[in-house]
């Protein structure tokens, strides 16, 4: 519904304004469930507060308004699988092709406190998938907490398309990112790779600049595939090349 170009961070950016903590925590929980793509565009500064008192300041292009869950019918296909099952299978297959060997932490997909991502890593993906719909776009999002070596991160894949009459999101850079590159894919796709600036502030511990990376692929037919990962450490979960390969996977499509 919805993996966060959630979640990052504000080095050299203006200080974040004061915020309502409860409102922020609720907003982040919604993003975890359906991927922060609020107004289907990059534009705002998001401040995330972790329930334990640790906080993350994120300067990014994503709107802070998350998409709402839509009433999408899960109609079964000829093979008996629901749309949700087909989308989930395609997402996990794309991950396995381009980033094999990932492991997963179960039961923490909606957990905002990064300290809670410390459970055992298992081979079986914990990857819920849900439809979403907001004013500008609709689609599907899947997410989980992935592990590679010592790096743990919330990883998400979102597949969406703008609604009738809504303009396509521009694929340029906003200038507020830690790093941003644009390119073209093999079939005319527009690709944007963004590393976000963030600070994770765990209580009583040094500030961490989490590895927060988002890759958007805009297809000629209007479909957008977004792959996003935010680590609880300074290392990135996946390379930009791996995330781009996942987003370009042709099996990632709307059911």
From TrEMBL:
Listed transmembrane segments: 37-58
Keywords: Membrane, Transmembrane, Transmembrane helix
Region (Disordered): 60-81, 161-185
Name of the protein: Uncharacterized protein
Taxonomic source organism: Micromonospora halotolerans
Source species taxonomy: Bacteria, Bacillati, Actinomycetota, Actinomycetes, Micromonosporales
